[in-house]
Amino acid sequence: MATLDLNSISKSFGTAKVLHDISLAIEDKEFVVFVGPSGCGKSTLLRIIAGLEEATEGKILIGGNDVSDAHPVDRGISMVFQSYALYPHLSVYENIAFPLRVQKMEKGELDQRVKRAAEILQLTDKLDLKPGQLSGGQRQRVAIGRSIVRNPKVFLFDEPLSNLDAALRGDMRVELSQLHRDLDATMVYVTHDQVEAMTMADRIVVLNGGRVEQFGTPMELYHHPATKFVAGFIGQPNMNFIPSTVIDTANGLSVELKGGHKMVLPVDTTTVSKGDIVEVGVRPEDVTIGTTGVEVEVRVLERLGGASISYGSIGGDTRFCASLPGDVRVKEGGSVTLEIKPEDCHVFDANGYVLRRQAAPELVA
Amino acid sequence: MMDRYTKLQMAGIYFCVAIFLIFMLLPFFEMFMASLRPLEHLFRSPYQFWSTDFSFDAYSKMWETVPLLGRYIFNSIFIAFSVTAITMVFVVPAAYAYARLKFPFKNASLAIFLGVNMFTGAVLLIPLYRVLRSMGLLNTYWAMIVPGVAFLIPTGIWLLRSYLEKIPLELEEAAFVDGASRMYTLRRVVLPLAVPGLIVVGVAVFIGAYAQQFLFAITFNQTRELQPLPAGLYEFIGYQSVTWNEMMAAALVGVLPVMVIFLFLQKYLVAGLTAGAVKE
């Protein structure tokens, strides 16, 4: 059993506090992704779990044992670095064998383990090459090979795909998900790319400014973002936020959107009252062209083929992005009326907290 | 592109390079010419650049004039090699510590090392003499090796430290996560990657050791058999005459090993001395 529990982890560098009281319970065999903008503390948190940094406060438990002061090897973790950190003077074989050589493992077993790892990662015919002779994707696989050869309980990945080009990144995402299934191990993965987070994670931790904004499954974060930050971070293109005024709170939330359109939204209204300013969040993919709705001036239209993304604004300064059908007849510089279904709307109060949706779709596993 | 020059600029650049090279190389050329001339020819007036009586006689006669010449050349190389080897033993761990570890007075001690470099050996000759005398090292090889090592360690640390700092920290972190100790990481990861840097430092130390031995030799050593070449060259200065041509020949033969080393390791030197100068 390799559960990973963080109890009130805080970290300061001098007077700068980069992590604030972070507590997480990661389950055995779970694939958890830490995601957030640069400087949110996600890499620092990973390094603390790895044992490369010491937490200023708090405890780390792996499989229920307190490992806060333990060496990385004794923690049972292994880590894949952003730069891969392959040893350029050693062959692929020796790179993968490195952790076992450190343990002074007996030759036969070492050879068997290295070959097994190479097999899983399709590196068998590359074992004699130096890292410099490999492509980016192959180097990535060697780095993973070095981390799996030791059979750790928890795998840590620090932005492993950020050095690869877009196409390869897509392939590696699939490979990593496959690897997770094959190895059946707990994995913690850090990225700033919400697509990687959405596609690979069992659960996502969204970090912002050294705090956990939300911890949940990808679809939970998509349909029920707890804060405006999470709503804006998860989903591509980003969610639109329309400043609105509360008209009434009985029988749903009645609001007047900027631009004059009025709607009644099925959300929890207990924390707002008449006259409050809220923000209505609408995902670009949740709008359709219609006859009644918000009036949007289209500045740029990107035709992707299957879909056309329109970038425009409401009333000149509230940016609004919409994902429309591929062959939609909209002109740049023109305007369009977009229909929004009340049940698709997210509402955030003045502090950025969500008013719980009451008509959201059921979550799929 | 930064290297687009007009023809005129190129001519100017080559002209300046030529002047610089002539300035640097002319002494060697003149040494060589002097070594070829018969002794009488050297004092002929007016100066005659070329004559028909040039010969390599000095290169064979010098071994007779100074019978211990071979020994002196060996001593020079032996002392320089010993200094280099011992210096490296101290420099490698120290430079690694300065590059990677945190400890009190790190910057202060590094500055002191640089400060030591500011003194030439000459200023410290008399105190050093006393130290070596009380340690009983006068008139031994150690008298020339120990001060040599002491003066070269700071340079070595400064050079190697900047090279080691360039090795990505993530490599060492990866080794640490995989359970390697500091020493294991140093041996298996850092040093193999630092080979070009080690060569640069080794050569720089060797050249330093070769250059500085004269002062230490004439001050701390009276034993003829232990003298290095620069001190041994004095024997070409006789009571009656100075055999300049043979002295020049001996000097050229003496610097030959260093020149050869330079030629072979030149590409490392150029890469190494500028390493860390710009952020890549």
Structure description:
The complex is a heterodimer of chains A (365) and B (280). By secondary structure, chain A is α+β, with helices and mostly antiparallel strands. Chain A has 9 helices and 20 strands. In chain A, strand 4 (57-62) and strand 5 (65-66) form a beta hairpin. In chain A, helix 4 crosses helix 5 (136-148). Chain B is an all-alpha fold and 280 residues long. Chain B has a single domain, classed as MetI-like fold, CATH 1.10.3720. Chain B is globular, with a radius of gyration of 23 Å. Classes of the chains: A alpha+beta (365), B mainly alpha (280). The A-B interface holds A 50-52, 71-73, 77-79, 81-83, 85, 87-89, 98-99, 101-103, 146, 150 and B 168, 170-171, 173-180, 184, 188-189, 192-193. Chain B: It is found in: Cell membrane.
Name the CATH homologous superfamily of chain B: MetI-like
- Largest interface, C-beta closer than 8 angstroms, per-chain residues: A-B, 23 and 16 residues
Low-confidence stretches of chain A: none
- State Rg of chain A: 24 Å
Strand content of chain A: 35-45%
Low-confidence stretches of chain B: 276-280
CA-CA gap between termini of chain A: 23 Å
**Gross geometry of chain A:** elongated
The overall strand count of chain A is: 20
The oligomeric state of the chains shown is heterodimer
Q: What is the CATH topology of the largest domain in chain A?
A: Rossmann fold
Q: What order do the helices and strands of chain B follow?
A: HHHHHHHHHHHH
The mean pLDDT of chain A is 91
**How would you name the CATH homologous superfamily of the largest domain in chain A?**
P-loop containing nucleotide triphosphate hydrolases
Summed over residues and divided by their number, the pLDDT of chain B gives a mean of 85
The number of strands of chain B is 0
CATH architecture designation of the largest domain in chain A? 3-Layer(aba) Sandwich
The topology string of helices and strands of chain A comes to EEEHEEHEHHHEHEHEEHHEEEEEEEEEE
The CATH architecture assignment of chain B turns out to be Orthogonal Bundle
GO molecular function (chain A): ABC-type maltose transporter activity; ATP binding; ATP hydrolysis activity
Family (chain A): Belongs to the ABC transporter superfamily.
Organism (chain A): Halocynthiibacter halioticoli
Domain ABC transporter (chain A): 4-234
